[in-house]
Each structure stands twice: as C-alpha cells, then as structure tokens.
Design brief:
This protein is an alpha/beta fold. Helices cover 47% and strands 15% of the residues. The strands form two sheets. It has a seven-stranded parallel sheet with strand order 4-3-2-1-5-6-7, sandwiched between helices. α1 packs across α12. The longest helix has 23 residues. The model has no long low-confidence stretch (mean pLDDT 97). The structure holds nicotinamide-adenine-dinucleotide (NAD) and magnesium ion. Magnesium ion binds next to α7.
Length: 386
C-alpha cells in the first residue's frame, strides 16, 4: 500500500535524507506536501521530482517565485507562515517534522491535530511546548515517532508495557567538536570551526548546539516528554564514536542498546516504515574495524549548557521554552559573528535568571514566553556589543 507523506523542512539536512529514502522506494510512497523557508529552487525541484501535490515556502516574499517555478505542473503553491500550517494540515498518512527551531511549532501542531503519524526531528518545538504538544497528540489520537537518533534508539529499546520497570535511560552524546578542549581554547572559535561535527553532517543550528552540548540538553528535555520514566532517570553519557545511539536499562540489570553508523537515514527509515522495516543505504557497522568504544562522564563545567537544561527540565513550567528561545537567538548571533562561542550559554543563563513567568497552559502562552525570552536575549546581546 502506498503511504502518503508530507515533509516540513524538505530542503534541510533531515528533509533531504527523508526524500532520498522515499526516492529509492518510489512505489511505496506518494508525496502530499513539501515545505521550505527560502530555498525556492530546492523546494521546486523536489516537488517536481516527487510529483508533490502542494509546496509551501515560509518566506512570504517568495510566493511569486515559487508559483513561477512550478507553473504548469499542477502542483499547488502557498507562501508565508499560514501556508506552512496549510501544508501540515493536509491529509497525509505520515508527516516528517524537520523544520529547525520553534518556527516548526505551529505546523507540527497542525499535523498532530489531524491525528496522523508525525515523525519528529524538530526537537525545539517539543522542548518549548512539550506538555501542550503531548496533550494534543493524545487528544487527537496522533502518533509521535522520534527521529532524533538517540530518541529513535530509545524508542527501539523501550518495552512500552514495562515503562515502570525502566531503571535508567542512558542518552549518549558524542561530546561534539570541542569535547577535549579547554574553555580558553573554546573562547575564540569561529562559526566555521564550530559547525564541523566529528561524526554527523547536519544543519548549522544543531551543529552549534552539538558544539556547546546544548543539543544534549535539549535532547534530555525531548526524552522527558517522549518517554515518561521521570527526568531523574535520564542520564547523559559521552560516547565519542557515536556507535551506540542510546540505551535503556531495566530493573533486572539488563541494558538494551541500539547501534549503527552515524547516518540519519537509519532512524528516518525506522520511522518511515514503522511498524515495519525498510532497507536504508547507511554504511554497515564494522565493529572489528572500529575496535573499541569509549565512554566518559559529561563535563558540566566546560559545557554549562548541560546544567542549564537539567535545571530547566527539573523546574519545568516555562523554563524549557525560555532556555530554547534564548539559545536560538544566541546561536543565530554566534553564526552572524555578533557574539563569541562561550557567550551562547552565558546569554541563555542570563535570560533564565531574569525571566520567570508562570507555566504556559496554551500554545499562545508558549509563543508569548518564547517572544519575551528572545527579546531579552537580543537586548542583552546589544548591551554587550555597545
Ligand atoms: P537544516 O537547517 O538543514 O534544515 C532546516 C529546514 O527547515 C529547511 O528545510 C529550512 O528551509 C526550514 N526552515 C528553517 N527556518 C525556517 C522557518 N523560520 N520557517 C519555516 N521553515 C524553516 O536543519 P536540520 O539539520 O535538517 O534540522 C532540522 C531539525 O531536525 C532540527 O530541529 C534539528 O535539531 C533536528 N535534527 C537534525 C538532525 C540532523 O542530522 N540534521 C539530527 C537530529 C535532529
Ligand atoms: Mg540527536
């Protein structure tokens, strides 16, 4: 049977990996909708190749360009934030949520409200609006499938009938490009250096998050919402080879792990075919060649983002949304060369220090917290630059 698919963020790293798998299995899938932020040419080419029914560009100024690029194809087009939501709201069996940042939240909510299956890569939306999102999924009978490699690994190892028999979830982390660096060595790194991840090829924002290790902090909060074992039972373990993607330890001492080469097409394929399995072209694991796997405890002093995220998940309420919004602003400023690498976590800490609103209970509340945290982060960065 053909599965109808929509991809939100189709031109990004996760989006193009998803398209790659689909294009290798043309008979199994039909594309309903594709979205992108500003890459009109990339979006139009993907829509033509796959015979998508609808394509939406997030930047409202680019609507005309997209319509022209797809003229005569019969593919519907739309532009602006509302068009992204329209794309997500169209009937599809399976939706890939691969927009980066909180910009993906409204489209993800539209897909969940439809009650379909949503493969979630866009961790920032779950970090910001975890309770609102998981509640909507439950209410509308939607299924959330984790695509983040660690969470996909946990999903594969977790026996859902024995959640109360889980002793620990062990979230592995590569440690990023600066795993062995001192704070003074990190002080002067450029965006070009910081995006060079040792194991994974990814978009710029998540690559910077991996370098500060905020990525693992966001993943801790993501895991807390996806796997209800209690955040105090989710531990972070540095594993530089990125072979074990995460583990679940049960009360009897059994620890189950999922292993693979660092290629997102494996967890994406797992979610695409779920509950079945499909072939994926990722390089096979050659453990004899790798020889040995190593592990170390995370260093919360050199990577303060981890401690900030742990405190945010413990406190709950608006704290994770503030952490995420301040981090998005700070990462964008670092990529734009307006602040230094170590300023990223420092700005996040400052915003968390000076802003403590009540718990958001609706999506509007989450957006209000998100907007205020961004304003505060921007103000602090302006003061710093002045
Ligand atoms: P990317 O930057 O390569 O792609 C982002 C996609 O989102 C693009 O299609 C872009 O057009 C779209 N987009 C960006 N800003 C937008 C906006 N304001 N409005 C609408 N669309 C917008 O990012 P990526 O690396 O593919 O990551 C996507 C998400 O998946 C992130 O949340 C990331 O944390 C998560 N993730 C990525 C990887 C990976 O290997 N790349 C692994 C795990 C999780
Ligand atoms: Mg991950």
């Amino acid at each position: 049977m053909t599965r109808s698919i929509s991809i939100l963020g189709a031109t990004g790293s996760v989006g193009t990996s998803t398209l790659d798998l689909i294009e290798r299995n043309r008979d199994a899938f039909a594309i309903e909708a594709l979205t992108a932020h500003s890459d009109v040419a990339g979006l139009a080419a993907a829509a033509r190749r796959t015979g998508a029914r609808f394509a939406a560009i997030g930047d409202a100024q680019l609507g005309q360009a997209l319509a022209e690029a797809l003229a005569g194809t019969g593919i519907g087009t739309g532009a602006g934030e509302a068009a992204l939501v329209d794309a997500a709201a169209r009937e599809a069996d399976w939706t890939m949520a691969a927009i980066v940042g909180c910009a993906g939240l409204k489209p993800v909510m539209a897909a969940l409200t439809r009650g379909g299956t949503v493969a979630l890569a866009n961790k920032e939306s779950l970090v910001s609006a975890g309770d609102v999102m998981t509640h909507a999924a439950k209410e509308h009978g939607a299924t959330l499938l984790p695509v983040d490699s660690e969470h996909n690994a946990i999903f594969q190892c977790l026996d859902r009938t024995q959640v109360d028999r889980v002793a620990r979830i062990i979230l592995t982390a590569s440690g990023g490009p600066f795993r062995t660096w001192s704070r003074s060595e990190m002080a002067a790194v450029t965006p070009e250096r910081a995006v060079q991840h040792p194991n994974w090829s990814m978009g710029a924002k998540i690559s910077i998050d991996s370098a500060t290790m905020m990525n693992k902090g966001l993943e801790l909060i993501e895991a807390h919402h996806l796997f209800p074992v209690g955040h105090d039972r989710i531990e972070i373990l540095v594993h530089p080879q990125s072979v074990i993607h995460s583990m679940v330890e049960y009360v009897d001492g059994s620890t189950l792990a999922q292993l693979g080469t660092p290629d997102m097409r494996t967890p994406i394929a797992h979610a695409l075919a779920w509950p079945a399995r499909m072939a994926a072209p990722a390089e096979r694991l050659d453990l004899a060649k790798i020889g040995s796997l190593s592990f170390e405890a995370p260093d919360l002093v050199r990577f303060p983002a981890l401690a900030l995220a742990r405190a945010a998940v413990e406190a709950g309420g608006a704290r994770p949304a503030i952490l995420n919004a301040a981090n998005e602003q700070a990462v964008a400023a670092f990529l734009g060369r307006r602040i230094a690498f170590l300023d990223i976590a420092a700005i996040v800490a400052k915003v968390l220090d000076c802003y403590d609103p009540p718990s958001p209970s609706s999506l509007d509340d989450v957006f209000a917290v998100d907007a205020q945290a961004r304003r505060l982060a921007t103000e602090m960065m302006e003061v710093k630059a002045a």
